[in-house]
Structures are given as C-alpha cells and as structure tokens.
Amino acid sequence: MFLQDISSDASSSGELFYKGAFGQSTVESGLPIMQEETLDLSSSHIGARLIDLNSGLLPGDHLTFKLHFRQGQIAISTHVSPQQLAAPSRAP
Q1: What is the 3-state secondary structure (H, E, C) of 23-65?
Q2: Could you tell me the sign of the dihedral formed by the alpha carbons of 60, 64, 65, 71, in that order?
Q3: Local structure of 15: helix, strand or coil
Q4: Spatial separation of the C-alpha atoms in residues 47 and 17, rounded to whole Å
Q5: 3-state DSSP helix/strand/coil percent for the chain, to nearest 5?
Q6: Strand, coil or helix: what is 13?
Q7: What is the dihedral of CA 34, 37, 38, 41, to 10 degrees?
Q8: The model's pTM
Q9: What span, in angstroms and rounded, lies between the C-alpha atoms of 28 and 56?
Q10: What confidence score (pLDDT) does residue 90 get?
Q11: Which residues pair with 86 in a beta bridge?
C-alpha cells in the first residue's frame, strides 16, 4: 500500500513526516507500507500532523481524520493529547 496524504475537517491540510537523527523531514510523495507491516503514527520514526486547525481542540477531545491511499481511504477517530514540549535548556 502507499499512504499519500492525511486530512481532517478540523484543519486545512496535513502532512506525513519521518523523525530522524537530524530532525524532521516531510514526506513529499507518500509513505510505502509493506504487506503485513503495522503503521504506528506515534512511533519513533513516523509521524502525521494536521496543519492550521480551524477549531479549538483541547486535550481529551476526539478528532476524526482520514488517511488517503492510492486506492481508497480510511477514516480514523482519535483523541487529542497534550502537546509535548521540549525540555527547557538550563543555563550553566
């Protein structure tokens, strides 16, 4: 399968990205998924984000988004988690 895009009525667009050793890199054309592979969008190397949310979402709210494949799409319901911020740096 080939995952091409992510979308939601709650945002203007979405994107897929890899999280590597040198930061995040947006996936431009899509993401291949091998047969029997489990896609974990909360894993350490694959992510998805919605951009320009058009509604105020709070932790605990539910959100529906769609994964668009070359042949079809899947609607997924998920809950909103608090944003994880990087730990503040400590000055010597």
Answers
A1: EEEECCCCEECCCCCCCCCCCCCEEEEEEEECCCCCCCCEEEE
A2: positive
A3: strand
A4: 5
A5: 0, 50, 50
A6: strand
A7: -30
A8: 0.67
A9: 27
A10: 46
A11: none
Distance CA(57)–CA(81), nearest Å, equals 10
Q: Hey, what are 70's tokens? A: 């070359």
Residue 88 half-sphere exposure, CB side, CA atoms within 13 Å?
A: 3
Query: Average pLDDT of each block of 10 consecutive residues along the chain (92 residues)?
Result: 87 82 76 81 75 82 88 87 53 46
Neighbours of 31 (CB within 10 A): 20
Element housing 77 (H / E): strand 72-79
- Tell me what pLDDT residue 43 has: 67
Distance in angstroms (rounded) separating the CA atoms of residues 69 and 76: 13
